[in-house]
């Protein structure tokens, strides 16, 4: 098969389309003929050499895909050859074919094209597990998303609105904020020109928000704590603003705050299976109703993975970037 290979750690130019061995299919896996895959920021860290794949995972990039079931391991009964599916991967999406545990596979949501379905698995599993399963965002609560125009952000806005939350976002341009509002964000904050803590306080009568989904880490930590309401929950899913910071624990005590963090890729297959099942039960109906739509900025041929990475690193995009084998 053909796959994008990281020829050596480095910039986008190290990504090359090469002929490689087909994946080995285990008994509990399906082989998917990849129709589309989507970029995630983790792909850039892996390309640079700072985020290796988990033990036993594909060496190739790509944390999600959509496609057609080509063959089944002998323990797989839920799917059949020819099914149209999308899947959460530990790697291997930037290729013609990928082997994936059957429990990490979802049907293509009703009303969504096979191509567009590739944009959902990673964002849906990340947001559902962190914001809803762990931070318990509830109807009537307030929710702040940093990076509102990202793939994660554009999905989180829609599903949070569907579940009855009031949604705040930060983004770095008026164009991005306008888009976030067009898909349901209630309050848009330009982090380049505004202090988000002051704006959150102003919009919540001085209280703060109930839940924050954060991709920045250290650089936003204290500001996030200052932006939370009593019993507020901060969930960290990225460290784009650094990994170490000073912490004043008094506000955690005074406001009864919860701070959590998690990745998705290194979870066990069993753990991912629970998340996938919850996503199918809770998120797929919202997509079927048209209340959560795919947000895709641009699609590239697989051979142009380097250009796709350059676009992601420029942060000009809104939503997801796809690669089509």
From TrEMBL:
GO terms for molecular function: NADPH binding; oxidoreductase activity, acting on NAD(P)H. Keywords: NADP, Oxidoreductase. The keyword NADP applies. CDD domains: p53_inducible_oxidoreductase. This is Enoyl reductase (ER) domain-containing protein. It comes from Sphenostylis stenocarpa. InterPro entries: ADH-like_C, ADH-like_N, ER, GroES-like_sf, NAD(P)-bd_dom_sf, Quinone_OxRdtase_PIG3. Pfam families: ADH_N, ADH_zinc_N. The keyword Transmembrane does not apply. The lineage of its organism: Eukaryota, Viridiplantae, Streptophyta, Embryophyta, Tracheophyta. Residues 10-323 form the Enoyl reductase (ER) domain.
């Amino acid at each position: 098969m053909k796959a994008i290979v990281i020829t050596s750690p480095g910039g986008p130019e190290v990504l090359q389309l090469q002929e490689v061995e087909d994946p080995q299919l285990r008994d509990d896996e399906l082989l998917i003929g990849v129709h589309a895959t989507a970029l995630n920021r983790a792909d850039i860290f892996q390309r640079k050499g700072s985020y290796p794949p988990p033990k036993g995972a594909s060496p190739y990039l790509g944390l999600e895909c959509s496609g057609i079931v080509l063959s089944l391991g002998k323990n797989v009964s839920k799917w059949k050859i020819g099914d149209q599916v999308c899947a959460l991967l530990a790697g291997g999406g930037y290729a013609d074919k990928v082997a994936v545990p059957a429990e990490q596979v979802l049907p293509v949501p009703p009303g969504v094209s096979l191509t567009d379905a590739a944009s959902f698995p990673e964002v849906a599993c990340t947001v559902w597990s962190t914001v809803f399963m762990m931070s318990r965002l509830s109807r009537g609560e307030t929710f702040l998303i940093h990076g509102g125009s990202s793939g994660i952000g554009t999905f989180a806005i829609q599903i949070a609105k569907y579940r009855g939350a009031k949604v705040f976002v930060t983004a770095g341009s008026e164009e991005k904020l306008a888009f976030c509002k067009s898909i349901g964000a209630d309050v848009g904050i330009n982090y380049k020109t505004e202090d988000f803590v002051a704006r959150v306080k102003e919009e919540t009568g001085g209280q703060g928000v109930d839940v924050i989904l954060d991709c920045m880490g250290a650089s936003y930590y204290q500001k996030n704590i200052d932006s939370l309401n009593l019993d507020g929950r901060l969930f960290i899913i990225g460290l784009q603003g650094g990994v170490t910071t000073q912490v004043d624990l008094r506000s955690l005590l005074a406001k009864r705050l919860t701070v959590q963090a998690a990745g998705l890729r290194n979870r066990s297959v069993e753990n991912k299976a629970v998340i996938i099942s919850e996503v199918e039960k809770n998120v797929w109906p919202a997509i079927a109703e048209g209340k959560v739509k795919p947000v895709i900025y641009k699609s590239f041929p697989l051979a142009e993975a380097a250009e796709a990475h350059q676009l992601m690193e420029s942060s000009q995009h809104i939503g997801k970037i796809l690669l089509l084998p």
